[in-house]
Amino acid sequence: MAAPTLSIDQVRELAANVGTHFMPLLNLGNAASFLWSLFSYPVGVPHRMPKIVESLTNFPMFHGMLAALVMRVDDMPEVQTLLSKLPPVGGMELITDLKQCVVCDAHLISEVFQVKSKNRETGRACTSPTVYGENGAVSNVTLWPKRCVGCEALHYMSYAEGGKILAKDHQQYYDNSPDARWFHVTKEIIWSTKLLRQYEVQVVCSHSGFDTFMSEYGLLHGGAQAAEVNTATRRRLSHAFFAWSVLKWAGELEWPTPTPTLTLTLPYPYPYAYP
Ligand SMILES: [Zn+2]
Fold first, then answer.
1. Separation of 185 CA from ligand 1 center, angstroms?
2. How close is the Cα of 159 to the center of ligand 1, in Å?
């Protein structure tokens, strides 16, 4: 079938309509930078829009249009699927997409800048973990918690802790945490669940040990962080893999939720230093 022929006026009208959906992106380079920025600053991170604006250098700064575009793209499942495939990058920020508390079901807020103890501010609630992706480790990452307005538990990527209801040093893991993009058992190290899955396969098929796997990881992906394979790194992997496996089995065996008396928190002080 012959392609429909369009008059030059129809082409202009079509281009104008398309342009209104993409403004203020003027070219594909802008589009690529924009997607990386959305990935680095996901929905919920504090001061998200100023961070997105600041990250877009050599970009036409129509802030109102940019904010409108961000809102449209946040609701596009295809774009969100694409973003979920991108590898970790330095400077990225992480925050859970949960909206309700897993402990008391109250609303979660992300504007957590300070944690207070005995009416004294003790510092920022965010941490700077190392992220182990499928293709190497990345530092200079910010992990933000969301705080429950009811019980005050802090919610991270895989679990909630603290607040007025949860027991001290107890982590309440989310039902879907073994299947999410990231998994972690401490605030210092975050793992790609694909990497944990790779290790699981190698354990079964190649009988790889933690040390062997992390040595291979360092050789394959290089970089200072990935190359620093030592006893501590091996133990970090074994700790995360143990917790991830237990939670996966709990889901497969349909254990009651919340899983009774299960805590995956290591005793403090840790027998080895994090990070
Ligand atoms: Zn709560």
1. 20
2. 12
Which stretch of DSSP H or E encloses residue 74? helix 63-74
pLDDT in tens, 62-112: 778 888 889 999 999 999 999 998 999 999 999 999 999 999 999 999 866
For ligand 1, the distance from its centroid to the CA atom of residue 70, given in whole angstroms, is: 29
d(CA 214, CA 228): 9
Residue type, 83: L
**Residue range 228-270, pLDDT digits in tens:** 555 667 778 888 888 898 888 887 887 765 554 456 665 444 4
Please tell me whether residue 63 adopts helix, strand or coil conformation.
helix
For residue 164, pLDDT beyond 60: yes
| Helices 193-206 + 231-252 axis angle, to 10 | 90
State in Å: Cα 100 to ligand 1 middle.
8
Q: Where are the domains of the chain?
A: 8-83, 93-252
Whole-number Å distance, alpha carbon 176 to ligand 1 midpoint, is 18
